[in-house]
Amino acid sequence: MSNRYGLEIRSASAADAPGLAELLGACGIAIPPRALALRIEALRQEGGSALLALAWGPPSGLIVLHWHATLVDAHPVAVVSTLAVAPEERRQGIGRLLLKAGAQAARSAGCGVLRLDAGPEPAAASLRGFCAATGFAETAARYERPLRKRS
């Protein structure tokens, strides 16, 4: 997709799952590579995009977007559900480049707005400054509940 300062941003594929599982694990999200490969393929089929940033070696970052129509928005809404940068590569502009590439993918899909799920505290607190610096405004609280019983 793009290449800047030796950093390539491209669509993720099932073949990228082992490296992405390692990246996500370093960010506190444990997903086995096989399950991750299946999820990446499902995402591609269901109206979304997973973009990864590669320098030299394993993936440096990942952004996952989903888009959907709503009754109140004139155009589809894109939601960033995952934005992860390897801990040792943070504060180098990788998150901004991933966000820019994600916004371009959302525009290409016809979306009119980009939302970012910050998730529960304390992760949301560390993301707040980044969101403000990249043009996001806090709009509302998010509530959720499980749809299946926990085992």
UniProtKB/TrEMBL annotation:
The organism's place on the tree of life at top rank: Bacteria
Nucleotide-binding among keywords: no
InterPro entries for the chain: Acyl_CoA_acyltransferase (IPR016181), Bact_Acetyltransf (IPR050832), GNAT_dom (IPR000182)
Ranges where the N-acetyltransferase domain occurs: 7-148
Matches recorded under Gene3D superfamilies: 3.40.630.30
GO molecular function: acyltransferase activity, transferring groups other than amino-acyl groups
Keywords: Acyltransferase, Transferase
Protein's name in the database: N-acetyltransferase domain-containing protein
